[in-house]
Amino acid sequence: MAIMNKKSKVSDEIPSSSMADIAFLLLIFFLVTTVFPRDSGLRVVLPEEAEEVEVSQRNVLHLQIQPNGVVVVRYGDSEDEQQMTPSAIEAIWRSEVAQNPNLIAAVKTHPDAAHQHMIAVLDALQLAGAERISLQLLEET
Amino acid sequence: MGLKDGGFERKSKASDEIPSSSMADIAFLLLIFFMVTTVFRNERERPIDWPSAAATEQIDEKRDNILYVWLERNGDIYINDRLVPMDDVAAIVGPVWLESGQRLIISLRADSQVPYRFVDLVQEQLKRSGAVYVVFATDLERRMTAERR
Fold this sequence. Notes:
By secondary structure, chain A is an alpha/beta fold. Chain A is 33% helix and 23% strand.
């Protein structure tokens, strides 16, 4: 009799009280592990097709990117050129734009230069806060 | 006497706990709702080597308004999983640009080693199609924060 009593105390239903915890755990697991595609990059706005603006040479900073990644910097109307790495451009731009707020960066990339070299220069300019940037193809002379 | 006891008994029958038996149903409903409403973009990623930049910023735009243009190392262009000749890019992007109400953002996902001549050609095509908002897709370059300021 005592044995019978003990048996009847065990419930014959599946315990469902922890079901909510299981479901929420699944929910949170999927929320956390969902990876959204990365949409990040460097923003630029291309000029409209017919847009050709004449700019005074005094307001242009020429940045010529060579195939090996070296950047030749030349101030608009002067003749002297400086060679530097893309990372040095940030400081150059900051000091130049302080003297001339209308300065435009003319980034001229050699056709054979890797995309990464242009990105490095664009990166330096955007880090320095440059907004007037012109992307061009370097014409071979 | 009997009436007083009956009153107490009736009150004590109401449980003072929040019923939790339907909690599982609620949770599963939420789970299924999110599974059903999640829209996956069925476009495949092309195997490219991402360029990196420290000034990389997140693009806050609806995904419908972003068009990916893949530019591989050999100059091949892929839009929506299809190989597109360079000269047809403008013809393909143009209608999408107008359909989006001139809000379309082109995410140009170019390989870091692709020669710039191809990037320039793509830009010319995009100018012709009218889509002027371009993002050069990059990975965030981790640098010392001291170096950035």
